[in-house]
Amino acid sequence: MAFIDKLKPVVISGVEVLPIIEGGKGIAASTGASSGAFAAAGAIGTFSGVNADTYDENGNALPQVYKTKTRRERHEELVAFGIIGGIEQARIAHEISGGKGRIHMNVLWEMGGAESILHGVLEGSKGMVHGVTCGAGMPYKLAEIAAKYNIYYHPIISSMRAFRALWIRSYSKVPHLLGSVVYEDPWLAGGHNGLSNSEDPNKPEDPYPRVVELRKFMNECGLQDTAIIMAGGAWHLKDWEHWLDNPEIGNIAFQFGTRPLLTKESPVPESWKRKLLTLKEGDVYLNRFSPTGFYSSAVRNNFIIELTERNERQVDYRTAADAEFSAALPVGARGRPVYLRPADKERADSYIAKGFVEALKTQDSTLVFVTHEKAEEILVDQIECMGCLSHCKFSNWKDKDDFTTGKKADPRSFCIQKTLQAIVHDGNVENQLMFSGHNAYKFAEDPFYANGFIPTVKQLVDRIMTGY
Asked: Which CATH number fits domain 3-269+446-465: 3.40.50.970, 3.20.20.70, 3.40.1490.10, 3.40.1360.10?
């Protein structure tokens, strides 16, 4: 059987579509314009429900200016921005799609106010959104929320064990609206990754047996006809031919998160698109700097290099001297001593001599050494937190109960909302966080993009369907 004959349409979110899904990225990196174009091409478009943009009469993104003083008040402003923006992106996608394909909304379960934003957007966009994809956490309530609005839900998981936990606790109660299960490769996908503590970030595993394991469990649950969406690592579908028309895999579709960034309809700035065309293998770095605490994959630029070096300038300390921690180091404005190992005291002195004069305490009884300017920036970012995550290790914010994680704010991380807003709207791809899948280096190698060619979404979908 020829490859093209194996690549069959699949039923997702209640209708038959091409087996191509636009990966739902974070802040403003997948919008109604891009997702509507994917749906119009007969595939599935996914707009971001994370801090979504609204526009002025000229189509320019409106800046999100916070006017209140407290974190809790700013958090409410952020939720309101997210609801208004999400409804606007759904409307744009619906209009562009012309009734073709499917429109999905993507949210991170660990984003601040996730449930409120979901309810607000789905209430205000009835008939425009066909499904919700959700990862970055364990979204137990996703099925319940989807049932209220009679739309499909699509959990993003990285192992059969994660789906089994979700199924047993929640999803088995709403099986008819389970539109698909998205298996996201935790070693290859861009953005936040679902690596568990038992998995080695430096030892990628073959996704095939992991997806076979997932399918076996789904079959046991009566989900034989429910599609699995393979996310992370998909570029040429010809490389996945052995997955097609394969009873061990079953109904299968493929999610593309990185390739849609380089399209005419992609909302990311031109500097981002040009950068993608220059990447080499290894330029995308799996790291654990995110304030969510999850692993994530991003381009190794000045932003990531600074975080790497900041975390390397780190020593253990104690507040009282003992036999091991015997070397005193004065820290803070008052110069109160903490105690280091003698060898670490030598390291600390060398950092200070190089200009890293501020020793910032972490929640793990370590000090990190930064310049005075960086210390000021970190402090301002922590103070100006607007609660974009459900739990933030950088600022110690939590979006419920007493609104604090109960731990020290962690200077080894960063304000993720600030940097993601900055890169997508200002285009500074060297000094802001640039999420990407690990296959991004293929832009420079793939002849489809020769001479800097940037396709429309329709041209990309047609190309993918050829196997390339």
From this structure: 3.20.20.70
